[in-house]
């Protein structure tokens, strides 16, 4: 079964392209799917026992500083808001809700990646509204405070509510938590469904409404590839310092592309979401290759 999981994400990407109109029609399901994935992942660990580490701090600092740094750098060099926003989200986008599943398949400690799933997603709850509000304020008559609260409210429902819900369930309804945890293995496939929908929706949006932006689409593909390679490399290097090479690479580079595309489509320039769509392709090609390479080693070890 392990070796077939390496094919799930490429299949989701390809089918999303061919069923893009259908994906666009059911795109409202994505936030709910993300919510369920986070609930399933959080239920599998004791949230009260998780503690942040120096690795978490390093990865979080990288996301906060490099994301806004890339935004201003690209904006100053190209004067293109679309490319700058796409680059910003490729770095700032929260860690994928399936990171624990994929990282465990690669040999990482599930507790380590689960901790950063919580930290990284809660971090985005505060940082993303702040950054997006700054960007939007230049083209909106709404005050910074109002923009911040509107954006925070939407993101927090999807990201923070699962953590609060599972924390309460673990404390007051432990049997229910055990029942939920028994199904945590399906989070990988739910994420593939979310990816299928968001990729299809984005491709449909680009093809139907933004054909004149082919140059931006090409550049977003190139920039997202460079950022993806850079984040996997940097994450693994950071992880090496704490004997967590695999976890470091996945925590920094494996992004919740569905959430990133949703934030760009909802709050910023929708065409910038093509950058996240491309990023999801690059990261999943690499993840599929990693899983494929890891499977024979695990088979030999079992034998």
Chart the SSEs and their pairings.
Elements lengths: L1 H17 L1 H6 L4 H14 L10 H25 L2 H12 L6 H8 L3 H28 L6 H29 L1 H8 L5 H23 L4 H27 L4 H9 L3 H11 L5 H30 L1
Helix pairs in contact: 1-10, 1-14, 3-8, 3-9, 3-10, 4-5, 4-7, 5-11, 5-13, 5-14, 6-7, 6-12, 7-8, 8-9, 10-13, 10-14, 11-12, 11-14, 13-14
Low-confidence stretches: none
**CATH top level assignment:** Mainly Alpha
- SSE order in H/E notation? HHHHHHHHHHHHHH
Could you tell me the radius of gyration in angstroms? 19 Å
**Level of helix content?**
over 70%
Can you give keywords for this protein?
Na+/H+ antiporter like fold; mainly alpha; globular; 303 residues; single chain
Brief overview, please?
Helix content is 82%, strand content 0%. The chain contains 14 helices and no strands. It has 303 residues and is mostly helical.
Description:
82% of the residues lie in helices and 0% in strands. By secondary structure, the chain is mainly alpha-helical. The longest helix has 30 residues, at 273-302. The protein has one domain (2-297): Na+/H+ antiporter like fold.
């Amino acid at each position: 079964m392990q070796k077939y999981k390496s094919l799930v994400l490429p299949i989701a990407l390809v089918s999303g392209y061919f069923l893009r109109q259908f994906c666009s029609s059911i795109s409202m399901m994505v936030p709910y799917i993300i919510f369920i994935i986070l609930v399933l992942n959080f239920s599998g660990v004791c949230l009260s026992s998780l503690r942040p580490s120096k690795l978490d701090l390093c990865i979080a600092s990288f996301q906060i500083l490099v994301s806004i740094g890339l935004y201003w750098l690209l904006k100053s060099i190209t004067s293109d808001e679309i490319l700058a926003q796409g680059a910003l989200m490729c770095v700032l986008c929260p860690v994928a809700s399936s990171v624990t599943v994929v990282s465990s398949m690669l040999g990482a400690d599930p507790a380590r990646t689960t901790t950063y799933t919580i930290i990284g997603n809660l971090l985005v709850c505060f940082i993303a509204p702040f950054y997006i509000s700054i960007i939007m304020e230049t083209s909106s008559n709404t005050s910074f405070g109002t923009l911040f609260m509107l954006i925070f409210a939407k993101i927090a429902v999807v990201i923070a509510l699962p953590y609060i819900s599972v924390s309460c369930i673990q404390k007051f309804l432990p049997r229910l938590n055990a029942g939920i945890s028994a199904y945590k293995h399906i989070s990988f496939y739910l994420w593939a469904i979310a990816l299928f929908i968001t990729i299809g929706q984005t491709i449909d949006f680009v093809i139907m409404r933004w054909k004149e932006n082919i140059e931006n689409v090409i550049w977003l593909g190139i920039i997202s590839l460079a950022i993806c390679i850079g984040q996997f490399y940097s994450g693994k290097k950071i992880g090496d310092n704490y004997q967590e090479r695999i976890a470091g690479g996945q925590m920094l580079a494996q992004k919740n592309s569905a959430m990133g595309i949703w934030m760009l489509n909802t709050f910023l320039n929708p065409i910038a979401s093509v950058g996240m769509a491309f990023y999801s392709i690059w990261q999943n090609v690499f993840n599929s290759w990693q899983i494929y390479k890891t499977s024979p080693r695990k088979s030999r070890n079992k034998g």
